[in-house]
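sry for the spam today, last one i promise. struct tokens for design, 70 residues
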């Protein structure tokens, strides 16, 4: 069994995180800004992290939080 390229795996996780963000923005129909955006993204990270207990969800939440800190 071949191992995944770490760069490809990281980019895949970031893509999943961005997809989640876009879906949530579409669902709520508005785009918060500034501190509101960071609070919104943190709540999204918390929701994703605890969904279905999958390890990939923690990685996606971490990517979202990295985005908040940058």
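last one done:
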């Amino acid at each position: 069994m071949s191992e995944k390229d770490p760069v490809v795996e990281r980019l895949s996780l970031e893509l999943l995180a961005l997809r989640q963000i876009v879906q949530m923005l579409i669902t709520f129909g508005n785009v918060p800004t500034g501190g509101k955006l960071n609070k919104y993204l943190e709540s999204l990270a918390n929701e994703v992290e605890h969904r279905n207990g999958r390890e990939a969800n923690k990685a996606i939440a971490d990517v979202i939080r990295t985005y908040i800190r940058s």
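The mean pLDDT is 76. ok im logging off now
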